[in-house]
Design goal:
The protein has 580 residues and is an alpha+beta fold. Helices cover 35% and strands 11% of the residues. The two termini are 39 Å apart.
């Protein structure tokens, strides 16, 4: 049995006291769903109750058992996806700081939660520090990793060119070095496409909140005294990405991988041959976008690196222009090349969004009209960013830099802004009538593989709308989704390892599974409810928002991944920056 060593909160038991004290000893109940970490003093505070009745009294009680707030439950007016009635306990007017419980006679009491000014700062740091624990090609010493210290794995200095990637100057079997980077997910491979949206999201947080992110202290080793910790950690992956570009022609390899997934062992014991596999247009364009962003972000710290990033971005773009439709089709590839590659494909047949993202980032960094010509306006229907659809990463960047883009067409900016605001308004409207009062889950289509990243990316869209308009309803919608991720949801889980009273302890994550005597590495957002249940594990429910199981076998609902953690990092730290 795993022992939870990183949990932030303890349950507080109620006892009898004075006439102003709460005088009923109640059991803790998971029928009260709320953010298990806590709330900002001057922001909304809600819990959803799955038992009870309209107008029933609830109490907020402090550590001394004193009642600090009294209110009445109100019906949400909507049933959950499982058909349950839900009730809202709204204690937003409570601004006193401290540790509290929510108590409802006849129902029970919640776990304890905090009301504090910087209530999510520790989580924000841990979510970013999780990337350090995914580092490849290095040991993690106790000084930085604590009980999760480990030996180095995957030096990646003897990587072979797979036949699918062979070319002039690098025939099949050529040995190359491509060290560093982050393990992509619960597995030990490295994928350019998924690194693309991950890096784009992390750079976006820096560009939106440079002062706050510069001051984050992650306790990680420093390669140079010039870089803040936040950019230091991102640099580890950026340096690997450089090695994924063929110096002969500027093309970018799709992934660095073993032929098959490794077993559930520590990195140093995963020693199968690794390969650079097939170049692709998607990889080249994602690479170009990231390098163009990096050119701006590192310019004031490491000007030589910044210049190198722009050069690499332009070379990758040139290759993509010459090879505009080189798709990564793993099944077809395996018909003609050996060994068969059966790890994550990240295949994408529609590259229009990659062209928009790469062109946007390169145009912002260079103001060169050749990139402007490749930027098209929004599609009729908004599509939330994902590894397979990165168009809106480019639009977010254009909006945040619009004041420095005098030649960019105003009508396109207006159409991008209009679609973003319409989407944000729709999110807010639907969230206001949903059973859990969250944007996330108002549509069953939200519950896909990696559904928790949907919640986080919805939050990012709302924060982008808030930054543009200062409309507090958008900020509140994003805050509701943060509450969803931390416990106000159909399963009652806080979906981040190590945080909250009920969080995942068996994620699909090889280092965590390989050391079962330890709590899982903290700060990872697990995938979340997924009615597809593609892993064959046992689930308690097939209802979309309840289709989650805290088992290592559940790669469909309980895996971790860098592209899911990146929007969590953005969402949590953006709030901390805004509330700071």
């Amino acid at each position: 049995m795993k022992k939870i060593t990183y949990c932030l909160f303890l349950l507080i038991l109620a006892t009898s006291c004075s006439t102003k004290s709460f005088q009923q000893d109640l059991p803790v109940t998971d029928q009260i769903r709320l953010n298990q970490i806590g709330f900002y003093p001057n922001q909304a505070k809600k819990a959803i109750i799955l038992e009870g009745k309209e107008a029933q009294t609830f109490y907020v009680v402090d550590k001394k058992n004193k009642i600090v707030f009294t209110g009445n439950l109100i019906s949400s007016g909507a049933k959950t996806l499982s058909g349950k009635d839900s009730y809202i306990a709204d204690f937003s007017d409570l601004t006193k700081t401290g540790s509290f419980i929510l108590a409802i006679p006849g129902v029970g009491k919640s776990v304890s939660f905090l009301v504090e000014k910087e209530v999510h700062s520790t989580l924000g740091l841990a979510a970013m520090k999780a990337f350090y624990f995914q580092r490849v090609s290095t040991a993690l010493p106790t000084e930085y990793a604590g009980i999760w210290a480990r030996a180095a794995g995957h030096p990646d200095d003897q990587v072979q060119i797979h036949p699918s990637a062979a070319g002039t100057g690098r025939p099949t079997g050529t040995v190359v070095a491509a060290p560093k980077g982050w393990y992509d997910a619960g597995d030990y491979n490295k994928y350019i496409v998924n690194s693309g949206i991950t890096m784009g999201t992390l750079f976006a947080l820096y560009e939106d909140f440079p002062k706050y992110t510069t001051n984050l202290k992650l306790n990680i080793p420093a390669s140079t005294q010039q870089l803040p910790d936040y950019l230091e950690e991102i640099l580890w992956n950026l340096e690997w990405m450089f090695a994924m570009q063929d110096p002969q022609d500027g093309g970018v390899y799709h992934k660095l991988t073993t032929a098959r997934f490794e077993g559930m062992v520590m990195p140093e014991h995963a020693i199968n041959q690794r390969y650079l596999v097939a170049k692709s247009t998607a990889a080249a364009l994602d690479f170009a976008a990231v390098m163009a962003q990096a050119n701006r972000v590192y310019r004031d710290y490491l000007p030589d690196l910044s210049a190198q990033c722009l050069m690499a971005a332009e070379q990758a773009w040139t290759w993509a222009v010459a090879n505009p439709q080189v798709l990564y089709e793993q099944n077809e590839m395996n018909k003609v090349h050996e060994p068969d590659i059966v790890t994550g494909a990240y295949g994408d047949r529609d590259l229009k969004d990659e062209w928009v993202w790469a062109a946007s980032e390169l145009y912002i960094s260079t103001q060169n009209d050749q990139y402007l010509a490749k930027i098209s306006g929004p599609e009729p229907e908004f599509r939330l960013p994902s590894w397979a659809n990165v168009r809106w990463l480019g639009y977010y960047s254009l909006l945040r830099h619009q004041q420095s883009l005098p030649k960019f067409p105003n009508e396109m900016l207006e159409s991008i802004t209009e679609q973003m605001i319409q989407t944000a308004d729709g999110y807010v409207k639907s969230g206001a009538t949903s059973a859990y009062r969250t944007v996330m889950g108002q549509n069953q289509r939200d519950f896909i593989w990696g559904s928790n990243s949907v919640a986080a990316n919805q939050g990012i869209l709302l924060i982008q709308a808030y930054l543009l308009t200062k409309n507090n309803s958008y900020l509140q919608g994003a805050l509701d989704n943060m509450d969803y991720l931390l416990g106000r949801n159909a399963t009652g889980y806080a979906y981040v390892t190590g945080f909250g009273s009920k969080s995942p302890i068996n994620p699909h994550h090889r280092p965590s599974e390989a050391e079962p005597d330890k709590a899982p590495v903290p700060g990872f957002l697990v995938g979340g409810p997924n009615p597809g249940q593609q892993d064959g594990c046992t689930y308690a429910s097939k209802i979309p928002d309840e289709s989650y199981t805290d088992q290592t076998c559940s790669y469909a609902s309980n895996e971790v991944a860098i592209n899911w953690n990146a929007p969590l990092v953005y969402l949590i730290n953006a709030f901390e920056a805004i509330m700071h």
